[in-house]
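Intended use. Records like the one below are meant for learning the mapping from a protein sequence to its folded structure. Do not use them to infer anything beyond what is encoded.
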Amino acid sequence: MLKIPPGACVATKKKGIPGWFLENFFSPRTDRVHHVLIRGYVPEIGDYEFIESIHIGLFGKGIRHGYLFAEYEGVDVEIYTVNSIDPTTAKRAPLELMRFGKSPYDFFLVISVLAQIPWVIIKNLIKERRFRKLQAEDFRYKPDTSFLCTEVYWHAYHLVGVDIVPSGVLPFPSAYKEALDKGVIQLYYKGILRRDIDAIPKNTGAAANNTVLSADG
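Structure written out for the chain above:
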């Protein structure tokens, strides 16, 4: 079975207008839009528990728990781990987030970002005298106890003193791509999520079109 360490992030593609917008209008570009945080392996179930934030309808859902292979097996994923932290801290991150209990989906952040876009474009035109793609640092951001899926990953590590994305920067998919480019996080696995992929600790290997880059834990 693919070994995934606690505190890892599983990122998937997302269809529809939101996924298309985030992929094409933000820089650096990434097609990984939805993010879930790995809580840990549950031997009684034979699966990994995860934490994510989703919306159903206009104001439904928020933080929820599920089992990774039960819901995402067969999906094209990228899995990230945070560089330069010990496994104990990584394991603590999702546990600290669970202190919030039930938290709603952050619809107000979506509204805030949409409202800021015209002003961001105008500001960039005045300051840089050109049109360019949006960047996460262009937006004002203040964390609260409501979460988008991308906020789950950032907030969990922030609670243990690790900022994957700098404080005050919008934790959108493009911000995680930048963190990946800078080496703050590293690519652990890329490919179709399947149970039958072996991950060899501290080694690099390939299985079909799937690449396992490391496996700690």
